[in-house]
Design goal:
about 220 residues; mainly alpha; two-stranded antiparallel sheet
């Protein structure tokens, strides 16, 4: 029986004396795996233990492969499953523009502009970690705490350029014959997907302006 179970059962204040545990013992604060009947310690970055997290990831890969095969058999986009793919690709026009998949078959490979990061939050998260004391640590820096404004500005400027570069490729792709011959509704969705890159770049620009006092921060919506 775990510490929490015995507390809920109404055990006395000294029930754990025989176990050698005290209220301030580290063992009493260890988070257990959220999977039923598993008492292994949970990972620092997850509610599951190592074994059950690996099991969940394996099941997710199996589910993704099954969905991929079913969509391919139905001649649908293997990413969203909503629209027909843009031949000779397996993704539809909207997913290709939205995800920055703009290389054409047979051409030399280019660096992946998206770098598997979809949002600014993902970019910041990839460069930070939480140490054992609960403080944020930024990769490549020995100090703890918030990054200097100059570093934040440099990161945002690099992110802005990355988003604009992808948006430029998306717009060029949108005006090619393979996209223009799509049905009207699919063309409109593809154009909107291409514009999302510039919208994301605009939000990054606003962050830089607000941080440097050139723009007032927008008030947060009340909950």
């Amino acid at each position: 029986m775990t510490y929490s179970d015995r507390k809920l059962a109404g055990a006395g204040p000294d029930w754990h004396a025989d176990d050698g545990l005290t209220d301030d013992s580290p063992s009493a604060d260890v988070r257990e795996c959220a999977r039923a009947a598993c008492h292994e310690p949970a990972r620092d970055d997850d509610d599951l233990c190592d074994a059950h997290r690996g099991e969940r990831l394996r099941q997710k890969r199996v589910t993704q492969r099954t969905a991929y095969k079913q969509r391919a058999k139905q001649k649908l986009c293997t990413k969203c499953g909503k629209r027909p793919p843009l031949k000779p690709h397996t993704w539809c026009a909207v997913c290709r523009l939205r995800r920055g998949q703009l290389r054409k078959p047979g051409r030399p490979s280019k660096p992946d502009l998206t770098a598997n990061l979809d949002t600014k939050a993902d970019l910041v998260s990839s460069r930070t970690s939480i140490d054992k004391d609960g403080r944020s640590r930024f990769h490549g820096r020995a100090e703890r705490g918030r990054q200097p404004v100059v570093e934040l500005d440099r990161q945002d400027v690099a992110e802005m350029r990355r988003l604009i570069d992808i948006g430029a490729l998306a717009v060029d792709a949108y005006w090619t014959p393979e996209y223009q011959q799509l049905p009207r509704l699919q063309r409109l969705d593809a154009r909107a997907a291409a514009m999302t890159w510039f919208e994301r770049a605009r939000r990054v620009i606003d962050d830089v302006l607000v941080r440097n006092g050139a723009l007032e921060a927008k008030p947060e919506d009340p909950e």
